[in-house]
Specification:
globular, 2 helices, three-stranded antiparallel β-sheet, single chain, mainly beta, twelve-stranded antiparallel β-barrel
Length: 307
Amino acid sequence: MLKLISKTLVRLLLSISVCFSFLVQGFFAQEVFAEESAETESNSATTAGGQNIQQLPKWELALGAGAVSFPYYPGSASSRTFVFPAVVPLYRGKYLKLDDDGLRGELYDSDRFDLDFSVDFNLAVDSEDVEERLGMPDLDHIVQVGPSLEWMLKKYDNDEWLFKLGLRAAVAVDGFDFNATGYTANPQLTWYRNFDAWNRSWRLGVTGGLLFGSEKYHDFYYQVDQEFSTAGRRQFDASGGFSGFRSIATMVSRNPKSWMALFARYENYSGASYEDSDLLGASDGLTIGFVYSRFLSRSKTLVNAER
């Protein structure tokens, strides 16, 4: 019974995680569009720094469905696929925000720079499901929390160039047990293009970046203690440093009735500091998915939001 409840909670967390956790990693990392309508009147203005400001509801709630396929962990040769109900809550408070850039607390905001406090979530792994980890302990859920600095390099009418640097502390979560698991860093460059197609407004995003992790974070996924070593799985102690390269492509669209996103993420681990670990079953990994939801309710209070 407890296992069933646990799996149900994981599915619920996954639904929110896919909609938002990938966002804060740059998976979506995009602004959404709002079209003027009788349902939600949106007034736009432009700041001196070139930012397009519009008024959107302070909170919105959407419900839909999605699917995502991704490796069990970075470098796993096996993947898993989830089809899930997508619960999409949006909140645009003065300091706390839960939107298309994820769950974050804004520490500093200007026309060129934005400093946020963001959260990310990685699902637990049952080692029996992964050939490389057979006979090893399961992997706990990982929650990553930390600051993220965004720098607007250049902005045109329909294009933007952004540099973003995220630094997060990782915590392993097993029920009510929490254990520090190192930290990660991800400098990345992103290009956005706004366009109209299929009677909707879209935002295309392409991101390229480097991945880095501490020794403790790499040990969590790639360390092999002597007691778990076999003929095909040598003892290994990971070191901190370079984790690989990440490339992301996203398309996000919104109108007054619905919100949808298509996304793909490719990672390559060649040259990573843990490259010699036998738990690295593949030199690269691909994640693909989509989310479609329709708005059920929204606040009548409008707040300013960057478009």
